[in-house]
Amino acid sequence: MSSHIVQSRRRFFIAFQSYFAPPPGQAPLSARPLSYCDPLCHQRYLFPSRRYASTTNTPTSKEFIRPQNHYDLFPSSLPSGAPPRGSFHVEPTALRKEFIQLQAQAHPDRHQGEDKAKAEVASARINDAYKTLLNPLARARYLLSLNGVEVGEDESIAGTVPTVEIGGSTEGNIDTALLVEVMDVREEIEAAQSQEEIDKLKAENNARKRACEEKLQRLFRHLDIEGARLETVRLGYWVNVGTALDEWEKPGNGRVSEHE
Q1: Is 24's pLDDT higher than 80?
Q2: What is the average pLDDT across 60-71?
Q3: Is the Cβ–Cβ distance between 52 and 44 less than 8 Å?
Q4: What radius of gyration, in Å, describes the C-alpha atoms of the chain?
């Protein structure tokens, strides 16, 4: 293997290592505000062996911008970075294409010795970033975490009966109308006798989730973090309803009622 390729791969892993350790004086990643990384500069930093059409104002190696968040790892499919500059929505096909390219660079089987261990870390980070950004609910929670707001699993519906307790408190984060609506849908799922009924409920629930995602797009664009937090909790309720719909089985086929 040529020394040029070895050096190129080493710089690739140095870039990903820097993702875990913030520079001196900076807050941990989860506490940093939404940031933006120039995609061309970022690509030069991760892949110095590539050729680029533009060479104007090329920064020196010390000026290369380190990846600050998951968005920075995908400069081709998410060129504008995280909201508010970028969109909340992502294009799944483009994201997957870039994900595959990144994983090809970092695949542990392509490396030996110390570089193999680094490759495993880099591959895991790429995989985590991809899964997070691909899923709207995980993406919303991640964006909130970048602004110091944590929305955990316990802030969406738990089990089969909704509760007004959010994160261990009863602060009224979710309005009563939503809770009643969720309960009504749960009862419809429990009473369903055919796949046609479930398919109808799925279509209605998918429409609710899309409405939440559209609202999150607007809220993150305007950096309405509190509004985005509440809408993320709302989306979590409908995602869990969707899971219940996917797990439905026709009565008489071994399905056990949740009330038994």
Answers
A1: no
A2: 56
A3: yes
A4: 22
Residue 242's CB: how many other CB atoms inside 10 A? 16
Q: What does the block give as tokens for 137? A: 């609910």
pTM here is: 0.68
Query: 66-112: per-residue pLDDT in tens?
Result: 557 999 999 999 999 999 999 999 999 999 999 999 998 888 888 88
Distance CA 42, CA 65 (A): 6
CA proximity to 140, closest of 151, 127, 130, 154: 151
